[in-house]
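Support reply, case 0932

Customer input (verbatim):
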Amino acid sequence: MPVKDHLHLAFGESLKAWRQQRGLSQEELASDAELSPSFVGMLERGEKTTTLLQIGKLADALSIEVKDLFLGTEEAPHIYREAEILFRKILSEANQSELKFFVAFCEIFTTHISRREK
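Our regenerated output:
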């Protein structure tokens, strides 16, 4: 599965977890975020992409920060948080060639991991 699909699934799982944690139905969340219920369902299943504006509306409707939709409902373990900070620092200083290499590495790594899980 391409990295992009994994990202959509992870975002959808996080969105669903936050919605359920708040005790909202898809219809209630959609209404609060001014979106359609079917669109919210497709986002939760990783079937649709969305815009930053829509992500902002979803976060507002859930009374959370946008970043929380990408972190999930629980804080990442300390070691993962440290790794995230390190990656952000490395990527912020990387040039275009280094970024392309990093993306290619992540795709290869993800493929390797998914093969091991089968």
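We compared this against your earlier run and they match. Two observations from our side: The chain has two domains: 3-71, 78-117. Helices lie at 3-21, 26-33, 37-44, 52-62, 68-71, 78-93, 96-117. Please reopen the case if you see a mismatch on your end.
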